[in-house]
Amino acid sequence: TAAVHDATCIFCKIIKGEIPSFKLLETEHAYSFLDIQPTAAGHTLIIPKYHGAKLTDIPDDYLQDVLPMTKKLVKLLDLDIVGQDGIGYNLLQNNGKIAHQEVPHVHFHLIPKRDTKTGLG
Ligand code: 5GP
Ligand code: ZN
């Protein structure tokens, strides 16, 4: 299904395996991999397998796997330890240059937050 990809897009190339990535999870509609410049250990990007720069460019069926995949990643990365205040995460999705978007293919950042003082993480 080449029509949903852009030949020049870094993240489309990652989906197609033309550029290597550290893949975590993949479904029919979504793909997740480690950020190459992590702001924290385990910093992960979750992307729809459809090329579009902004959230509203992506059809709903390509977005439907994104949040369930994010929930699985939270468990995989051990970020949901019950009763622990020293561990958490941010979910971030930038749209447009003014909002600090650098790669024009929709991606959600899953950024672990760990309190080093408690020894967690
Ligand atoms: P943005 O600022 O567009 O929301 O974030 C783009 C993110 O993509 C950055 O955190 C950057 O480190 C990451 N990134 C850019 N190019 C690559 C790449 O080729 N591989 C991986 N794994 N991450 C990338
Ligand atoms: Zn793309």
UniProtKB/TrEMBL annotation:
Coiled-coil parts of chain: none
Positions of the catalytic residues: H107
GO terms for biological process, alphabetical: nucleotide metabolic process
Residues in HIT domain copies: 10-120
Motif Histidine triad motif per record, residues: 105-109
Gene Ontology terms for molecular function: catalytic activity
Protein name: Adenosine 5'-monophosphoramidase
Organism placement in taxonomy: Eukaryota, Fungi, Dikarya, Ascomycota, Saccharomycotina
